[in-house]
Amino acid sequence: MNVELARTLPARVLFGPQRPVDTGAGAPPRFTVLLLLAALAVLVQATFGHALSVRGAHISFLTVLVVWTGLRCGPTTGGWLGLLGGALEDALGGGGAQVLAMTIVGFLSGLLSSRFFAESLPAVIASVAGGTIVRNAITYAVLEIAYGDRGSYHRIAHATAWEVLLNCAFAVVVVLALRWWSDRRPAS
Prior knowledge:
Layout: H1 3-8, H2 31-48, E1 53-54, E2 57-58, H3 61-73, H4 75-94, H5 98-111, H6 121-146, H7 153-184
Antiparallel strand pairs: 1-2
């Protein structure tokens, strides 16, 4: 390869700054705003989340936020938001598994940011479904291995199926609301 040609080609990275740019997307949100949204999501979930139950499954506002952040901002921001949001969730009675689970979910969804648009509805739905399954699988592993809570597989697996539906439905509402909001703003 010619040296001059190599200098003109953009650097190839595995993940990070060279991800596709959505034409309707603005700048990624600030981390402090995302952290405040995560705290609000955990507080709403801890306060009112148990009232929003379908067949033993509860909607997880934090999972949807962390997956969207990972898709929108990358693996570092998604992982950090998952770590801090999971720590807050565990501090309010999560049992200790959410720190690990949410960090991995945020990082893995961030790895997808170089491949998909954050506002692509099918990508967000698939990522939220995968993130919910990964989160509940890690929660199950921690309960089963670390705490010795035997026989919880069927209860968690049943709740996971319904939680995937709830989280994906909430993600659709969020993505459509964000699209409406960005279309509503005047172009500058």
